[in-house]
Amino acid sequence: xxxxxxxxxxxxxxxxxxxxxxxxxxxxxxxxxxxxxxxxxxxxxxxxxxxxxxxxxxxxxxxxxxxxxxxxxxxxxxxxxxxxxxxxxxxxxxxxxxxxxxxxxxxxxxxxxxxxxxxxxxxxxxxxxxxxxxxxxxxxxxxxxxxxxxxxxxxxxxxxxxxxxxxxxxxxxxxxxxxxxxxxxxxxxxxxxxxxxxxxxxxxxxxxx
Length: 209
Fold this sequence. Notes:
Oligomer: single chain
Shape: globular
């Protein structure tokens, strides 16, 4: 049980100390919660911080159920168990692409992303349930020419680990519970993160200057 996302980030940083001060390593937080966790890691290990933006596509009658996810290039990662064909997914993805585009504009403020060519990318979220958003994020990161992807999370559903392992080079997860209902059950305080909180963390690492 983590007190909050800051506590989770500090605990994760202890498992990533080998990257301290590594100029070839960069922390990539998945907004919103992953930026708070990732900010703690980057701060403690003296690493650069950036965002990798992806967003789930919710089912029409159950928005919490992910039928797919959209990455920063607009590419759709489908949930093969959801039963939606490509045309249906494309229709559902349109407003999600707009959401991803708005987040990119808001968080980056016109600034270019960090150059990831040959880098070790430490992709961070505050927890992973189905893994679709994380999968979309790491697929996007892989396409940027990184040397290595380390996925770092405080908690991941045990059943989701095989979904992601073939797309990353290393998984650092503090907890892999077999019984998993929601990420929030592993935190005492799990309030929704605002855009202002994300921007505050990013400003500490040079955004908006």
